[in-house]
């Protein structure tokens, strides 16, 4: 893994640690996920806006920009879902009660 790849995952892990801290403070996982997605959407909108010199140019590229980020997110989500499916027992601790119901 290159230094660049390591930095990529270190940044991602830092965001996940913040999300986990929110759950430790009592927020539900779904609430944290929704806030995380909103924060990412807000940051992505800012990131996109910072690359333009005029609002009209940003507006003209809006759909293309959304399509790009949705495609990228979908690929990352699919990759991580596959990872969790393949490593479910290692990653998720299911109580014996739930196992018996399943």
From TrEMBL:
It holds the Pfam family DUF3144. This is DUF3144 domain-containing protein. It comes from Methylophaga aminisulfidivorans MP. The lineage of its organism: Bacteria, Pseudomonadati, Pseudomonadota, Gammaproteobacteria, Thiotrichales.
